[in-house]
Amino acid sequence: MTAGESVRGTDSAPVDRVLTVPNALSALRLLGVPAFIWAIATEHDAIALVILMASGITDYLDGKIARRYGLVSRVGQLLDPIADRLYIVTTLLGLAWRDIIPWWLVAVLFAREAFMAVVVLIAKRYGWTGLPVHFIGKAATFNLLYAFPALLMADGDGWLATFMRPVGWGFAWWGTVLYWVAGILYAVQLGRLVAQRRAS
User: Fold this and answer.
1) In whole angstroms, what is the distance from residue 71 CA to residue 73 CA?
2) Where does residue 139 rank: exposed (0-12), middle (13-18), buried (19+ CB within 10 A)?
3) Contact, 130 vs 190, CB < 8 A?
4) Res 7: pLDDT
């Protein structure tokens, strides 16, 4: 976490606009979640792959456009992490249910979500309404969103599955490690802010 990133509520205020291109992209990602659940559960893997890749592309674009054109909004700050987590949770459960990934990996990533829930609750006690997305957290999300379609393509035989298996697990390991690193950095920064609040 860089020095310029802090718990939301200490940064400059985002805009109040709702109808923006980044928010529309985030909403579109959310609408894709039910379709993805159906596709992964019914083994329509091609459709699931298209939805996952579209999610990764729109996730990149909404943040890029929001920062480039000053369209960071409170709605976007809410929708973006919700969409990220929904895709991660539904993909994890779907791939584990299909025996493509082990359940212990699901447990490790869910434990991180529980850890972050505690961090957010502590932040709210001190008047901060949430935590901002920072580079390491987004890098973790990107790695996981790339890992999942790769692991889905690795489920089978042939040269493509053989090639995608190490690629998918490479992204999965990096994403898992960065996911926890981001969570720990959030907690450390929150601890410093709490200490400063108490000292003042």
Assistant:
1) 6
2) middle
3) no
4) 41
Quick one: what percent of the chain has pLDDT higher than 70? 88
CA 143/CA 149 separation, integer angstroms: 11
Sign of CA dihedral 161, 178, 27, 98: positive
159 DSSP β-pair partners: none
| Domains, the chain, ordered by start | 21-199 (1.20.120)
Structure tokens at 55: 């999610």
d(CA 97, CA 152): 12
pTM score of the predicted model: 0.72
Listed residue (71, 61, 37, 41) closest to 51, CA to CA: 37
CA distance 83 to 196: 32
Write down the number of H helices and E strands in the chain: 6, 0
